[in-house]
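Fill in residues.
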């Protein structure tokens, strides 16, 4: 009880700071895109309705959120070669210009400085359209924290899904990628096919002018690992719906087949962390033996930046559960089938992250979720500081809004040595749940 109260107080203080900063932000923003736009924002219309009711307005921006903003140029637009500016085509239709960095971590100055700034303007340029797209463009950046598997989804793929469903639920869209990297494109190319039939455009290397029916810039985020329902006449959004897009995309690529299932046993994917990265299971071999003894068919999975997601999807979608210590790789649980078992092992001080990232996801995907919170004696920090140190006894007191303490001590410095007997009890529960899922769904 005490602990949750403290977290709530922390959250409240954090929200208060955000609210104050936000109001400062709004006060300093004197240049409003349009009067009608401001009026609509004041009414907090849902974004899709906002666009539908634009009527004569050329540009509208929603900058009212703490974590993201987006702008929409509601005119046929042209993107000049080697440019980050979208201009209206033909005769000039107003006098406004908006600049925006399309990455949904608006509150992090340093991260945002890595993100290209995109300009939308109603000033037209005299250039012919060399490539005409009969769709709107959606521009977003794959800079920032992209490259970390959690952030790839949390700040990229999931907001992309939300944005498409919010702004363009009824039409196909051309994706225009700022801060493009070949790594990102080869990692997510297959998945993007689940979002749009149009070719993907690399903003950074164009040698032709491109024209679009309209342009949106920016990604909408609903918060850490969150998809809130979006009501519009065309689509309802949820993690389950997003996952069905994954299924469509990944059923169209050829993958290395996972090892054959052991007959009659539920398969669990064991997410393994190794090296000097923190949150490693020091007695992993012993724990894997226990997982096998509990009756599971165990597959060890050690993803890297270059893991081919078709292979990962095939393996995980074909399994009945996942087990792992809190960390970015657990984002692969997005590929588990609804109803699967998911055990998150939570090191000291990781509670808030564990809940707001992967427990959230587990709820959204209807997993049978189990959480194994380690005790101080199972933490490698006990060896460094001693069992009675405040770092072990009261992590919340140390963390208290101090990200650097959380990061250096509890995320990077801490490994775990699981209590074999306690962990076995969780495995028994997990096994009976996974077995039921196997019986029901195969
Ligand atoms: C694109 O523009 C940048 C600077 O604006 C310039 O350095 C670069 O050479 C240009 N590239 C091409 C292909 O025109
Ligand atoms: C465009 O707007 C700016 C500021 O609102 C103003 O100073 C400028 O004169 C306007 N230009 C035209 C051509 O209307
Ligand atoms: C731009 O980059 C994409 C992706 O790497 C590539 O397919 C395309 O050919 C490049 N275009 C030009 C004009 O270089
Ligand atoms: C995912 O699992 C379901 C249920 O077992 C199966 O029907 C489907 O083909 C699998 N998808 C892929 C891409 O393998
Ligand atoms: C945050 O934690 C770090 C690491 O424990 C510590 O060095 C620093 O003084 C703390 N900062 C504040 C403001 O408490």
């Amino acid at each position: 009880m005490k602990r949750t109260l403290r977290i709530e107080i922390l959250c409240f203080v954090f929200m208060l700071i955000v609210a104050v900063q936000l109001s400062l932000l709004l006060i300093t923003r004197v240049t409003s895109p349009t009067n009608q736009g401001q009026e609509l924002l004041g009414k907090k219309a849902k974004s899709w309705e906002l666009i539908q009711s634009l009527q004569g307005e050329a540009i509208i921006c929603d900058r009212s959120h703490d974590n993201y903003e987006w702008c929409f140029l509601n005119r046929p637009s042209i993107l000049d070669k080697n440019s980050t500016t979208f201009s209206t085509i033909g005769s000039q239709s107003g006098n406004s210009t908006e600049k925006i960095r399309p990455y949904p971590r608006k509150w992090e100055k340093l991260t945002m400085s890595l993100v290209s700034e995109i300009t939308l303007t109603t000033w037209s340029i005299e250039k012919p359209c060399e490539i005409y797209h009969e769709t709107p463009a959606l521009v977003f950046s794959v800079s920032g924290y992209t490259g970390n598997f959690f952030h790839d989804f949390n700040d990229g793929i999931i907001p992309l899904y939300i944005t498409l469903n919010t702004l363009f639920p009824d039409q196909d869209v051309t994706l225009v990628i700022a801060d493009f990297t070949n790594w990102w494109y080869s990692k997510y190319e297959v998945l993007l096919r689940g979002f749009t039939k149009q070719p993907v455009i690399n903003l950074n290397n164009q040698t032709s002018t491109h024209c679009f029916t309209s342009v949106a810039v920016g990604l909408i985020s609903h918060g850490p690992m969150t998809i809130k329902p979006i009501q519009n006449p065309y689509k309802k959004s949820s993690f389950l719906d997003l996952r069905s897009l994954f299924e469509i995309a990944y059923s169209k690529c050829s993958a290395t087949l996972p090892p054959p299932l052991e007959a009659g046993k539920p398969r669990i994917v064991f997410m393994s962390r190794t090296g000097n990265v923190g949150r490693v299971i020091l007695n992993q071999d012993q724990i894997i033996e226990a997982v096998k003894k509990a009756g599971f068919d165990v597959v060890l999975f050690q993803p890297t930046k270059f893991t081919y997601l078709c292979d990962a999807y095939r393996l995980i979608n074909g399994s009945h559960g996942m087990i792992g210590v809190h960390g970015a790789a657990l984002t692969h649980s997005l590929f588990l089938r609804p109803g699967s078992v998911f055990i998150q092992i939570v090191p000291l001080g990781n509670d808030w992250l564990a809940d707001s990232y992967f427990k959230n996801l587990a709820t959204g995907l209807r997993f049978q979720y189990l959480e194994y919170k380690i005790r101080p004696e199972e933490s490698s920090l006990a060896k460094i500081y001693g069992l009675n140190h405040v770092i072990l006894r009261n992590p919340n007191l140390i963390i208290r809004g101090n990200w650097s303490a959380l990061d250096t001590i509890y995320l990077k410095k801490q490994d775990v040595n699981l209590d074999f007997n306690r962990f076995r009890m969780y495995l028994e529960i997990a096994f009976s749940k996974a077995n039921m899922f196997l019986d029901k769904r195969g």
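Residues 247, 250-251, 314, 317, 442 surround 2-acetamido-2-deoxy-beta-D-glucopyranose (ligand 4) (CB under 6 Å).
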